[in-house]
Amino acid sequence: MQEFLQQVVNGLTVGSVYSLVALGYTMVYGILRLINFAHGEMFMVGSYLALSTVSVLGMGQVASGSLGGILLVFLISMTAVAGLGVLVERVAYRPLRRASRLAPIVSALGASIFLQNAIMLIYGTRFKVFPEKLIPQISWEVGGVKITLMRVVILVVSLLLMAALYTLVQKTQLGAAIRACALDHDTARLMGIDVDRIVSLVFIIGPALGAAAGVMVGMFYYQINFVIGWTYGIRAFTAAILGGIGNIPGAMLGGLILGVLETLGAGYISPGWKDAISFFLLILILIVRPTGILGERVAEKV
Amino acid sequence: MALLEVENLHIFYGHVHALKGITFHVNEGEMLTLLGANGAGKSTILRAVSGLLRPRQGRIVFDGKDITGLPAHQIVRLGVSHAPEGRKIFPTLTVEENLNLGAYSRWRDRTGVEESRRLVFRLFPRLAERRHQLAGTLSGGEQQMLAISRALMARPRLLLLDEPSLGLAPLLVRAIFKTIKEINAQGVTTLLVEQNARLALKLAHRGSVLETGNIVLSGTARSLLADERVRKAYLGER
Ligand SMILES: Nc1ncnc2c1ncn2[C@@H]1O[C@H](COP(=O)(O)OP(=O)(O)O)[C@@H](O)[C@H]1O
Ligand SMILES: [Mg+2]
Questions:
Q1: Is the distance from CB of B95 to CB of B133 less than 8 angstroms?
Q2: In chain B, domain spans
Q3: Ligand 2 mean position to B195 CA, how many Å?
Q4: Which residue CA neighbors atom 1 of ligand 1 most closely?
Q5: CATH class held by domain B1-79+158-167+184-238
Q6: pTM for the full predicted model
């Protein structure tokens, strides 16, 4: 039982990272009916930017990073990646807004490959390592379940960011405008909403959340590589589909469920099954319930 | 004085030439109705005026300002509201959220928005009762009330209404038309597109008849009601 609980706690930690990344996929899909295949790369770039910031500031070399320092790392990475997201939308997607459905997909893959290669050229192909002391290695035992400070940080930061997003989207006029755009661009325009600006906003929020996830994954696993955008991207994408693509609470839920299932699978079956589980799940949902857990039937735009 | 002037308007959907040089105007305070069979181009005219479509050729002047090619979200701010065909309310948003979005560009003017809210709740008390309900759960008639109210929340000087009677029971249609008349009487210039020509001509001051992208007939509502061709083609008389 304790082992099971431990797996669940571990699963929720990874899962909350998937949720953060999944939100980017789901929000862009919601508003443009487009899978932003370059989104995993936002996560990856966020992680590398954190690495650079940490090393420039000399954090974690002798002592653990201060709270202010860690916040600064998040802030820089999230801001820069948000800018990158807006840029990708302008360059790779906006010119194709009226093109066939295939064109933006090709463009998305192109953007993804471009970013991967850029990072590879700048940082090299080898694993890059975060300083181990960055986050103090404290842990607690609660009812036989071990929880490290880093896991608490991941859970708390993820949940706070998601709560903030949920409040923005559900409780504010700007959020209502985002939801209106997701339903019907033309009618949103008739309300006086500048749809292009809302699209830009979504390409700020999604990548910023993805970057936050990238920062935490780097600090948690210590080492990163330019392919993590793909490995985490495909899981987060699965999480978004699982929850119902286009559905914001769905992405949050989907990530948590996927994280827990994956961790349980790795623990009780074999670690080698971890990847297989998310792919298996993706295929299963697509067959059994393509709309995901919370998704309603998506009214396809003509 | 003309509040809206449309001159030689040409609109294409790809290769389809939907409007073939339309010219008309709407005077300040009046109600003009556009009549015509399905596919004549009535909705296309409204979509061009509100900025959803870009004319290939021609000019649209609102209140003396050339608004041709201006993006839709800016045209709303100038005082043109469009309640589109098929109502197009946001079904998964509440009634209140729909109304607030109607006033999206008036976020600086809190007291004014509050005033508009009171006005639409007075016109359609049913919406006040259902303000916290999801708009998609409203009946067809209530959705139409919401669509009109949402357009009014922008405090328009020109109101574009596209087939407000579509799919509604006769009793409801009469109630809604009565309200439209009241709105117009309060000084909101109205451009009304209707399939129900008889009702529309009873309400409007003037009318224009559209056939496949051309205006073929214009005149006062009274003269159109008496016109032989109109009676045959649109009022169902032999
Ligand atoms: N989105 C569109 N794409 C292509 N053709 C369209 C589109 N919308 C309307 N049309 C065509 O333009 C013409 C005018 O349509 P519309 O303005 O909707 O007519 P009405 O409102 O008078 O019924 C019709 O021939 C219609 O088929
Ligand atoms: Mg029409």
A1: yes
A2: 1-79+158-167+184-238, 86-155
A3: 9
A4: B13
A5: alpha beta
A6: 0.94
